[in-house]
Amino acid sequence: MPFLTRVLPIFLVSWLLTFTLASLFHSQYVVNQLVNVGVVVSLSERINLTLDDWLGLLPTYGAIIAIALAIAFLVTAKLTKKVKQYSMALFIAAGITAFAVVLVAIESIMNIHIIAGARRWGFYLQLLAGALGGLLFALLTKALATKQ
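^ thats the sequence. predicted structure below, dont judge the formating
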């Protein structure tokens, strides 16, 4: 039961932040590309696009991110039992690695960018979303451990 009451809520909060940031970064990257070619995009259109992207990406990209983070965090949790002093850095690296593997693997296998916002510098923004998700997971896990 500790998994359902302690680890799963922490994972879900971390995943939600990670997915939300990844979706936001994707949306704004795409809008920026439109603005670069002369398309005028109002603030309300940016907000609507961002919300539509979040809802539209949730069942696919959200699920892919959840699976990738679950694998990365599980491996990292096992590793941090041996090197606790590096747990925060390892979870950050796990989040980055999860995104890098997903994005590179899909592009290599299918020869497409699954996320338009993951091209050029947008790729690094996706990695940043993974890093921040890993950081949040590490911080929440550490906070839970100190409470017990």
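The mean pLDDT is 90.
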